[in-house]
Write a structure and sequence with these properties.
single chain, alpha+beta, seven-stranded antiparallel beta sheet, six-stranded mixed beta sheet
């Protein structure tokens, strides 16, 4: 469960900005509240703001830091990711911190600080938070005043073998840390080296798995590993019903065995990106079929008993099964639904879903229906959606709680500030979409007529 996120010195985020999913005392929409570890957590968070205000940068910060946590600094491009308008940005650490609750119901604070200049992880911490509020440092990785790396832990381990292994793992990130380990997180190193079946290693593995389970969708995302729809007839039928429900003109989705070789699928994609996609997809296919879109087509890939990759192309039936349509033949809005509909059956319980521009290419009524269906179809589990949007028609307190609505604002120094509607203490019957467009909450474009007239040139 996603409880909150803080970020500083990343793209438009200069000083620390925090988004919290902890529910306020608002009593409406009780079905939007999740309960765990003594806390009331929100099921959704919608983020509004002007173009270039920093909405997408929040999702990018989560995507960027998640990649570092799971795969190390080698998995991301550090070039110009700091707050560039400040002269000290390059030498200032980028800091990313999560509050989360795992499937086991335990709450943690986990964070990393990175150096853009040295291209290494400077510090990393994992804190267990009890219901009472008491905190225990599971580990803390830092650099002392002499510039020497060290690690420490407050965890008390009774089992002698487990205690020795834990000490060895942490020492690998201490004074004698290697160059490659400086770019890797302790969390991923321990999760990958240990089976996580018991004790402290089980906790580490649960947190690592929480980050693995996150779904992050951008408008240009090519591969999300979201589902095995083409290979599962029941899911394909459900997918088809939803496409029909959303009035796309599609009667059903059909699977067509493809003749395209795996490597040929990536023709036209830059070589570096293609190689990265091949590795990710090949690894995921080991466990189950995966569906992905690339080069304006949607494929499902699976391995046969001999390890050969079998390609299936997804086609759409618009009323004549003899004349099927490709993904690229569909409208932008229908294509967007191929990203979103899998969330109804792939949320898998305790999964945080982050979507940049949830309303992209969608009619406002369709976006609203999507959210309503999400609440209904995921009732009883702990899945969450955090999304950016421009659709002011969703600013409706009949649909959302006050504390589920967030704004971003570009400040005078071009940094991003994030804040909740809840700070304005609006009544439940307030017409907030009109107030938003009138500028009451600040996060709208400001048009300077004097610029066009040359007065401020």
């Amino acid at each position: 469960m996603f409880v909150g996120f803080s970020v500083s010195n990343f793209l438009s985020f200069k000083t620390t900005q925090t988004m919290s999913m902890v529910a306020s005392k608002v009593i409406r929409h009780k079905g939007h509240i999740l309960n765990s570890n003594g806390k009331r957590i929100l099921k959704t968070g919608l983020i509004y703001g002007a173009n270039a205000g920093g909405k997408s940068n929040l999702i990018r910060a989560i995507d960027f830091s998640r990649d570092i946590i799971l795969d190390g600094l080698g998995a991301v491009d550090l070039n110009k990711k700091y707050f560039r308008i400040c002269s000290e940005g390059y030498k200032t650490p980028g800091v990313f911190e999560y509050r989360l609750i795992t499937q086991a119901g335990k709450e943690y604070s986990y964070g990393i600080a990175i150096s853009y200049a040295e291209k290494e992880i400077l510090s990393e911490w994992l804190i267990r938070i009890e219901k009472s509020g008491a905190e225990t440092y599971i580990f803390n990785r830092d650099i002392d005043e002499k510039g020497v790396p060290y690690t420490e832990s407050e965890v008390k381990i009774k089992d002698a073998e487990e205690r020795v292994r834990w000490k060895i793992y942490l020492e690998d990130f201490g004074a004698d840390i290697t160059a490659s380990m400086r770019k890797k997180s302790i969390l991923s190193d321990i999760a990958e080296r240990n089976n996580g079946k018991y004790g402290i290693f089980s906790e580490i593995f649960d947190i690592f798995r929480w980050f693995q389970s996150m779904i992050i969708i951008f408008p240009t995302s090519q591969y999300n590993g979201l589902n095995q729809m083409v290979e599962d007839e029941i899911i394909r039928e459900f997918f088809s019903r939803l496409l029909k429900y959303f009035d796309t003109g599609i009667e059903s989705v059909e699977a067509k065995l493809g003749q395209v070789e795996f490597d040929k699928i990536f023709d036209g994609i830059p070589k570096e990106e293609a190689e990265r996609l091949k590795i990710r997809i090949s690894n995921d296919i080991e466990n189950e079929p995966v569906m992905f879109k690339v080069s304006d087509q949607v494929y499902s890939l699976r391995k046969d008993n001999e390890g050969n990759i079998i390609t299936t192309i997804m086609m759409q039936n618009h009323g004549d099964k003899q004349e099927l349509f490709d993904y690229q033949d569909e409208s932008d809005g229908t294509q967007r639904l191929f990203d979103l509909i899998p969330l109804f059956y792939e949320h898998n319980g305790n999964r945080a879903i982050f979507i940049d521009e949830i309303d992209r290419s969608l009619h406002t009524n369709l976006t609203r229906k999507f959210l309503e269906k999400f609440y209904k179809l995921t009732e009883g589990d702990t899945s969450q959606i955090i999304a950016t949007t421009h659709d002011s028609n969703l600013l409706d307190l009949e649909l959302l709680r006050q504390d589920e609505i967030w704004f971003v604002k570009r400040m005078e120094d071009h940094s991003t500030k994030i804040y909740s509607l809840n700070r304005f203490k609006e009544r439940y019957d307030k017409i907030i979409d009109k107030e938003y467009l009138l500028g009451r909450y600040d996060a709208i474009p400001i048009f300077d007529e004097e610029v066009l007239e040359g007065k401020n040139a």
